[in-house]
Design goal:
The complex is a heterodimer of chains A (about 120) and B (about 110). Chain A has about 120 residues and is an all-beta fold. Chain A is about 0% helix and about 50% strand. In chain A, the strands form three sheets. In chain A, strands 2, 5, 6, 10, 11 and 12 form a six-stranded mixed beta sheet that branches. Chain A has a four-stranded antiparallel beta sheet with strand order 3-9-8-7, with no helix packed on it. In chain A, strands 1-4 form a two-stranded antiparallel sheet. Chain A contains no helices and twelve strands. By secondary structure, chain B is an all-beta fold. The radius of gyration of chain B is 13 Å and the shape is globular. In chain B, the strands form two sheets. In chain B, strands 2, 4, 5, 6, 9, 10 and 11 form a seven-stranded mixed beta sheet that branches. In chain B, strands 1-3-8-7 form a four-stranded antiparallel beta sheet, with no helix packed on it. Classes of the chains: A mainly beta (about 120), B mainly beta (about 110). The interface of A and B includes residues 102, 106 and 108 of A.
Amino acid sequence: AQKITQTQPGMFVQEKEAVTLDCTYDTSDQSYGLFWYKQPSSGEMIFLIYQGSYDEQNATEGRYSLNFQKARKSANLVISASQLGDSAMYFCAMRDPGPYGDSNYQLIWGAGTKLIIKP
Amino acid sequence: DAGITQSPRHKVTETGTPVTLRCHQTENHRYMYWYRQDPGHGLRLIHYSYGVKDTDKGEVSDGYSVSRSKTEDFLLTLESATSSQTSVYFCAISDGSPEETQYFGPGTRLLVL
């Protein structure tokens, strides 16, 4: 069964520094997708970035990049030049095809990392 | 931003009463989902829909039912609310594209007393 592990419950980072949020995953599937979402204190869940298992390049979206190390089964989120507005919970998630192999079945989630940016 | 709304946004109810949460999308996406978020658990799937009148159970479906009579609306019903169903409920949609990214509504905070 798929599993996502985020080992950092919380992190403090100085503004303008880069930050890496860890995510490791476990799956026996050859084809899979990994996602990062941001949840600010207001509560909404915001999609940040996606990495497919067959993508050879690490995904990037503005200040966000995903450090994808397939052999190590890790998909760390890197935020460059952190800003105060980056303070939030960050969740790593993976597609789970469920009992019938439907890739649109669900996402399974890590427990999240609470990131606080210090001015 | 994906056009997803949830109603109500906040609700307080009593144990044993029925509750219906509504998710409405304007994106014409095929897939819709209901998740619940509880401290220490991330999000967990309650039910999902892969088309009008096509729904299936997720891993925490006990005590919940859903209906989808139109593409744009996905209803979640707690037949008889219990305190263990106090949670934040998120609706999500996906268009089934290769990335199959799920986009989330703003959430509904439900308190069952």
